[in-house]
Write a structure and sequence with these properties.
The protein is an alpha/beta fold. It is about 45% helix and about 10% strand. It contains 18 helices and nine strands. The strands form two sheets. The chain has a six-stranded mixed sheet with strand order 6-5-4-9-7-8, with helices on one face. The chain has a three-stranded parallel sheet with strand order 1-2-3, sandwiched between helices. Strand 2 (about 40-50), helix 3 and strand 3 form a beta-alpha-beta unit. The protein starts with 5 loop residues before the first strand and ends with a helix.
Length: about 525
């Protein structure tokens, strides 16, 4: 057997070439000398389809030949950008984007396995013809060593069709669409078979399409955000019955510090097709170990399908099917009080957020607002019913846990869960809840909460007004509200002993003269509950 062709020099050296300044003479000389050093008489150069790239890599191969060196040197140009229409790209073709990485990887794996140049080139062409990519960015990148340019995009604008050489995209979207809508727009372009300009891949759309998904960081997107983007992408594909055989998420091909990402789909060959490689062969080559620093590990199994949080009967997991009946004195007034409390925390969001910017991490107002909005939605949808206070309080506990999150979400959810349990324990004494039952159940709920937090009054946390409210509640709801307000107001002058305020400069906190945002949220909530 002849010695294997060296594809792309070595796969491990591909990223080294990326770092060379394009367009300079020494780049051409470097590549030409590299071809001589690594070719072993057979070399395939894979180039992203940009005019400068194609010219300079082509020049390098021609200089190698002109030097009198022997060998079979071939150039494969890859264009995978689906945002460039067929009419617009009629002469120059589509731009080469992150999908080229898959060509590198699979062709290089065949080379490492001892494949001939013909086999490596055929595999590269197959992958190049089976990929599509679309990118999006919030801003263009900044070239090191140059002055920062003016902002290209408005704060509420995003550009679709971003390349990797800082050139403009083909469409600007304003205002910023939600991630779900953006993902839908991008994948609709990638998978369309009816758009005469952008229907590049022969998807069937009948549940038989198998794909490899690459979610590529264009430079400045955090790992957390990339996870969210990938999750939405997987959800879109699975809902439309595309089988995702592999998912690659990471920084594969960047445009320096561009705040954006791209999606690439590799459409795998169908069983029985005349493709030179089968789907399983392509996946094996993709999964083959590689030591290039820029190659990210990926799971060798397919992404799972998220399981529903609903049981087969449609009820929430963890909810009891037969709660004891404990009616409020006035179901309509009970529901109105819950609505008022939710509306109150929604209105107070800007004030609480500003307090938390000073005293915490800036999300307290938004967290409470999320809970308030979710409670109102539950009332509107009928999920939260007023005829049984036990099931109503349990529903609120579930909603708070699901939609608020964070420390405050957990604290509220534990308190409401404890409140529901205590009310259930007392439901045999009376079919209608009264102030005494509310007061004693609230005290037991507070004791339950104390098992999971070390905060005790005075601590400059939400525990201060919550405790004051519970202790004063036997004297009436109005008395409880006043106690909660006074306790929240008093946190302005406290040294924080718990919560995020404990990590803040206490002198600066005292000078700001703001209450603890969590404490203020409790005061707002109970005031709304009472309509005061």
């Amino acid at each position: 057997m002849s010695s294997p062709v060296r594809t792309l020099l070595k796969f491990e050296e591909v990223l080294t070439l990326f770092l060379i300044q394009r367009g300079e003479l020494y780049l051409v000389l470097h590549i030409a000398s590299s071809i001589g050093a690594y070719s072993e008489n057979r070399t395939l150069i894979v180039v992203k389809n940009y005019t400068g790239d194609a010219l300079h890599f082509g020049l390098a191969s021609e200089q190698h030949r002109a030097s009198g060196a022997v060998g079979d040197i071939r150039v494969l140009i890859v264009g995978d950008d689906v945002t460039v229409g067929k009419t617009q790209g009629g002469i120059v073709g589509r731009r080469g984007l992150a999908g080229t990485i898959l060509v590198y990887k699979i062709a290089a794996a065949i080379s490492r396995n001892g494949g001939s140049l013909d086999e490596v080139e055929a595999a590269g062409k197959l992958i190049a013809q089976s990929i599509g990519t679309v990118g999006v960015g919030l801003e263009h990148c900044h070239v090191p060593g140059t002055e920062a340019g003016e902002t290209h995009l408005a704060a509420d604008e995003i550009e679709l069709g971003m390349g990797i050489h800082n050139e403009p995209g083909f469409q600007r979207l304003q205002p910023l669409p939600p991630l779900k809508e953006l993902v839908d727009k991008m994948f609709t372009m990638l998978t369309s078979t009816t758009d005469p300009e952008r229907s590049y891949l022969p998807f069937q759309g009948d549940g038989t399409d198998e794909v490899v998904l690459m979610v590529n960081n264009l430079g400045a997107v955090s790992e957390l955000e990339m996870g969210a983007v990938a999750g939405e992408a997987i959800k879109w594909l699975q809902e439309r019955k595309y089988r995702i055989r592999r998912t690659l998420v990471g920084t594969y091909m960047t445009s320096l510090n561009m705040p954006g990402f791209s999606f690439t789909l590799l459409l795998l060959p169908r069983p029985g097709s005349n493709s030179p490689l089968s789907a399983s062969q392509i996946l094996n080559l993709l999964d083959a170990p590689a030591h290039a620093p820029g190659w990210k590990w990926h799971s060798l199994i397919e992404p799972g399908i998220p399981q529903s949080t609903q049981s087969e009967s449609g009820s929430k997991i963890g909810s009891s099917q037969s709660e004891p009946a404990l009616a409020p004195e006035d179901p309509k007034a009970f529901l109105e009080s819950i609505s008022r409390a939710a509306e109150a925390v929604i209105r107070a969001e800007p004030e609480i957020t500003q307090q938390d910017v000073i005293a915490g991490d800036g999300d307290a107002g938004l967290t409470l607002k999320a809970g308030g909005v979710a409670v109102l939605n539950a009332i509107q949808s009928g999920r939260l019913q007023p005829n049984n206070v036990i099931s109503a309080i349990l529903t609120i506990a579930e909603i708070v846990d699901e939609d608020m999150g964070g420390t405050s979400g957990a604290l509220y959810s534990i308190f409401f869960s404890g409140l529901a349990k205590s009310l259930r324990d007392r439901s045999t004494a009376s079919p209608i809840v009264n102030l005494d039952m509310w007061s004693k159940s609230a005290a037991e709920a507070l004791a339950t909460l104390y098992k999971y937090t070390r905060a005790r009054p005075p601590s400059r946390t939400l525990i201060d007004p919550l405790t004051a409210f519970v202790e004063a509640l036997p004297n009436g709801l109005a008395a409880g509200v006043k106690a909660a307000k006074d306790a929240a107001e008093a946190t302005k002058h406290m040294v924080a002993k718990a919560g995020r305020g404990a990590y803040v400069d206490q002198k600066r906190l005292a000078e700001a003269n703001v209450p603890d945002p969590g404490a203020w949220g409790v005061a707002v909530l109970v005031s709304g509950l009472a309509g005061l």
